[in-house]
Specification:
Blueprint (H helix, E strand, L loop, with lengths): L4 H9 L3 H17 L7 H10 L11 H15 L7 H10 L9 H11 L2
Length: 115
């Protein structure tokens, strides 16, 4: 079975065993919440794999630094550019109580908080 482009990107750029497990749990939580909705699973899958990658650079503001990896991922996989704003919202707001701009960001906050 072919893995998602975002998972391959994570494996190629970080492949941290602890975060691999964490990311899968976050993704599963989000996908479970959006069953029977018209929300786009790719948004949660991509955000799930990339949201903590900024820790490679700096743990404290990793949510902001993770956008560097999102940009790199989108450059390598331009077909996902249509979801960029939703994915960015998920990543930026995943560790805070700030108000997400989209339903995607809110679902991601809840999914991440329950893992």
């Amino acid at each position: 079975m072919k893995i998602h482009d975002a998972e391959q990107f994570f494996l190629d750029n970080w492949n941290d065993k602890k975060h691999n497990i964490h990311n899968k749990a976050v993704i599963q939580a989000c996908l479970g919440m959006i069953e029977e909705t018209n929300l786009i699973p790719d948004v949660f899958i991509i955000a799930g794999w990339i949201h903590d990658m900024g820790k490679i650079i700096n743990k404290e503001d990793h949510h902001i630094k993770s956008l560097i990896y999102l940009d790199k991922f989108i450059k390598e996989n331009p077909k996902y550019n249509v979801y960029y704003d939703f994915i960015k919202d998920c990543i930026i707001h995943h560790r805070s109580d700030s108000k997400s701009l989209t339903i995607y960001g809110r679902v991601f906050q809840i999914g991440r908080a329950h893992v």
